[in-house]
């Protein structure tokens, strides 16, 4: 008999980031009963609790994403039009960029995305088809041979335990938390070039060499002195430098990710620019030379006069990258996450007190930490921004030579017979815990193979985010917002399709007729499985 603290579902999705929400929606559309869990106060992961505006391809306004991701984007703009005091020009702009940021065509405040995501899930919560458990994190799993039977969850604040049993389990956590709990084979860090054949890989595997994590935060600039208390580790970070950085980490000089040459960034709060003229297009460059407008999420001139006293900008800049140690599979992970938070506080304190100004002065004490924007008590993002996850050992692993523009040239990326979606971003690896500088490689628009969603052994667990079968290198372009959404949505659809037939997901990939039927279903739901003829960048 089921105990009081046990739940059952057709499909369990652990992790409520973009991949987890998309997975849940796909399964719910197929009529399945779903339990979705999330560790933080907001669903949405990198878009919300991690406070990272969407990183998307240059063609996102025309094609290259699933229909449901487009509904998310459209919903964000419509939310602004309905609820915010936009200027008439901003309200009329079809491709409104609320923040006028250069990193994306849709820089916006994270709580708007939360509202839209919650509205997408709301009908299913109301009908009882979806149970959202929040804030819960996975702590254990019951496994029988090659099958995951149930996952035990703990409430983040009270420690209360719940167990959820389901015939299909999706790992949509930010770092692949279910993989070690279930004994699913996985890899971390940098694979060996001897094994993968990747041009940018080292000769020997480096499992502890992972991309930096970042703890983002939002600031505006208003009258008054809003300087925070000096962080206890400020002096350490103030003097910290590496051989390849070109200066101190706390400084406006940092490597250009694409050339690796040290480049001076500019910073000036509340410039007199026209946010409606900004074009967030990665083909034109990374957009990070002007730090204020780089990830600006609210441009005051998009709103009626007086509505916003200042722009709001999101600090996810080179100087907050924490690469002293990995977070994954490290017994001291909590210590290093707190040090990463200390680095972010130190960056803010430096900006407020010592950062060089163009007028010869130092510091902007008017910079104000906006924890109300990120939804946190301490002012920083609720969750660290994890660029890299544990990754399943998959039936097919995407490697650099599958999509590198330098390798593939005019042929374009490899086209997979079992494509379940598409994505596009440069291979964008930040400085790493192994001492690597940026690794930035032009990419061809690529596909997502079903084989990368299939663990080599476990039958009923699927990755639904950055934990699919990529390498350290190709994770650099499969980790971004619309790609994570597509991965999760495909995993949710695959679990629902498999549930209908009582089959393990790998059976769909093994049977040409089943695969064709599944791909037809995806296409009917608004998935794009192939790219039109577009150029790499």
Automatic annotation (TrEMBL):
Superkingdom of source: Bacteria
Pfam name, any one = FAD_oxidored
In its UniProt record, a GO molecular function of this protein is: L-aspartate oxidase activity
What GO biological process terms are annotated to this protein in UniProt? NAD+ biosynthetic process
Q: Which PANTHER family match?
A: L-ASPARTATE OXIDASE, SLL0471 PROTEIN
**Protein known as:** FAD dependent oxidoreductase
State the species of origin: Glycomyces artemisiae
């Amino acid at each position: 008999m089921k105990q009081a603290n046990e739940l059952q579902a057709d499909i369990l999705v652990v992790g409520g980031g973009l991949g987890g929400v998309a997975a849940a929606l796909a399964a719910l559309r197929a009529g399945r009963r779903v339990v979705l869990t999330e560790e933080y106060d907001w669903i949405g992961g990198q878009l919300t609790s991690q406070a990272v505006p969407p990183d998307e391809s240059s063609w996102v306004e025309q094609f290259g994403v699933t229909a449901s991701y487009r509904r998310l984007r459209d919903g964000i703009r419509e939310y602004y039009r309905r609820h915010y005091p936009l200027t008439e020009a901003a309200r009329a702009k079809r491709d409104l960029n609320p923040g006028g940021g250069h990193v994306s065509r849709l820089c916006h405040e994270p709580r708007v995305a939360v509202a839209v995501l919650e509205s997408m899930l709301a009908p299913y919560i109301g009908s009882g088809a979806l149970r959202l458990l929040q804030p819960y994190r996975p702590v254990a799993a019951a496994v029988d041979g090659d099958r995951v039977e149930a996952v035990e969850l703990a409430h983040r604040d009270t420690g209360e335990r719940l167990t959820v049993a389901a015939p299909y389990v999706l790992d949509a956590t930010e770092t692949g938390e279910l993989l070690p709990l279930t004994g699913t084979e996985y890899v971390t860090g940098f694979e060996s070039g001897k094994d993968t054949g990747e041009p940018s890989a080292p000769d020997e595997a480096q499992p502890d060499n992972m991309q930096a994590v970042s703890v983002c935060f939002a600031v505006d600039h208003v009258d008054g002195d809003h300087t925070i208390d000096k962080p206890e580790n400020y002096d350490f970070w103030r003097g910290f430098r590496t051989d390849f950085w070109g200066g101190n980490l706390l400084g406006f000089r940092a490597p250009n990710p694409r050339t690796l040459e040290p480049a001076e960034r500019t910073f000036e709060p509340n410039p007199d620019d026209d946010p409606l003229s900004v074009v967030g297009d990665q083909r034109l460059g990374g957009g990070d030379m002007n730090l204020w407008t780089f990830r600006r999420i609210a441009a005051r001139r998009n709103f009626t006069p007086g509505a916003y006293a200042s722009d709001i900008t999101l600090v996810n800049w080179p100087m907050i990258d924490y690469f002293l140690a990995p977070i994954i599979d490290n017994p001291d992970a909590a210590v290093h996450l707190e040090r990463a938070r200390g680095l972010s506080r130190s960056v803010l304190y430096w900006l407020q007190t010592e950062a060089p100004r163009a007028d010869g002065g130092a510091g902007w004490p008017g910079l104000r930490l906006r924890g109300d924007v990120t939804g946190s008590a301490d002012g920083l993002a609720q969750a660290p921004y994890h660029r890299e996850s544990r990754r399943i050992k998959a039936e097919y692993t995407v490697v650099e030579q599958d999509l590198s523009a330098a390798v593939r040239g005019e042929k374009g990326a490899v086209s997979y017979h079992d494509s379940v979606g598409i994505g596009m971003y440069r291979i964008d690896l930040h400085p790493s815990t192994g001492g690597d500088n940026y690794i930035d490689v032009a990419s061809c628009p690529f596909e997502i193979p079903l084989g990368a969603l299939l663990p080599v052994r476990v039958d009923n667990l699927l990755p639904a985010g950055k934990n699919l079968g990529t390498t350290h290198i190709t994770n650099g372009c499969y980790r971004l917002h619309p790609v994570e959404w597509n991965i999760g949505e495909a995993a949710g659809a695959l679990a629902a399709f498999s549930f209908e037939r009582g089959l393990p997901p790998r059976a769909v990939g093994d049977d040409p007729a089943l695969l064709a039927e599944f791909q037809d279903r995806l296409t009917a739901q608004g998935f794009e499985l192939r790219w039109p003829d577009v150029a790499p960048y």
